[in-house]
Amino acid sequence: MNTEIIKIDENNIDKDADLALQRAGRILREGGLVAFPTETVYGLGGDAANAESSRKIYAAKGRPSDNPLIVHIYRTEDLYELTEELPETALRLAKAFWPGPLTMIIKKSPFIPLQTTGGLETVAVRMPSNKIAAKLIEYAGGFVAAPSANASGRPSPTVAKYCIEDLDGKVDMIIDGGAVGIGLESTIVDLTVDTPMILRPGYITEDMLRDVLGEIDVDKTIIDSSSKEKPKAPGMKYRHYAPKGDLTIVEGKPEDVVEYINGQTAAAREKGLRTGVIASHETVAMYKADSIMDAGSKEDEETVARQLFMILREFDDLGTDVIYSESFDTSGIGQAIMNRLLKAAGQHIIRV
Ligand code: TXA
Ligand code: MG
What we know:
Blueprint (H helix, E strand, L loop, with lengths): L3 E4 L7 H15 L4 E3 L6 E5 L3 H11 L8 E3 L6 H4 L5 H10 L4 E6 L14 E5 L4 H9 L4 E2 L14 H8 L5 E4 L10 E4 L6 E4 L5 H8 L3 E2 L27 E6 L2 H17 L4 E5 L11 E4 L6 H18 L3 E5 L7 H11 L4 E3 L1
Helix pairs in contact: 1-5, 9-10
The chain binds threonylcarbamoyladenylate and magnesium ion.
């Protein structure tokens, strides 16, 4: 398949860009696939109401078909099409956080086929704030199923270059809207249980949700690397985000972490392996390795969140064999950062 790649500036959707988005919307309505930017990561869109489109999404990503897709909408009232039982909490959350990086799980109506929800009777829904995404969803008819636009298992794309790397030739169109703002996927909250529960942490934090809902639970498997329980979001059980190199997280006092990692990278380099380190801005100058990535200051989690997936992909570009990462604080957005980092490392964390 020939994949058309177009560029659109989110802050300047002129006539030409609007026409291109109308065309992209038509592709989706006709059952095709379009990758597009959102504020979190790039998504791979198909018509959420079309079972065949969902099947194509799974095929293009190489994704197991029991892993449900998120349905993207562009206005809150469309929630009523997706469910016959809209919980009052959904409207409160929509008012507080939409459009934005929050996904809610609700009971699904027959409008959404089981192929889109991986066979579940519930549906995940989110309203992205990215203007390109919003227009595209509107022109597509209002309901776009979109997982992250990466090949299954790889880090989610935060720039179009990595969508192209994973999906060129497998989708009809890729919209390059530049670098995303957030860099980690949306927070997922399950509203089908008595006390709403976070299934995947993200930019909308536990505290922010508690402020609106009063009570909130967190799926224990999110950042507990030793938990034997099965995660409640089907997708969270898969190894994910993994770079090709072997990634280990090292936790401890900063000076101990630096000493340990430098010892490990020196030994690996002696064996002829390419080494990499993910460091915080505060300690980046203290490491010795082939590639040392500054993820941002420990005080600035938003920057770390935005850079993490990009850094993991860069190590692949560089052919890095072994990677060591500092660990990050798990408060606020840190919960999402450590959740993704632990998954990328296959839960491999060393305490020094
Ligand atoms: O920020 C995001 O959410 C991005 C952008 C493109 O919107 N999308 C995204 O989709 O991250 P994806 O498919 O990569 O991740 C969706 C996650 C998976 O872990 C999946 O198992 C979970 O959402 N999920 C979807 N529907 C669900 C449901 N009905 N019940 C429980 N988990 C669900
Ligand atoms: Mg994904």
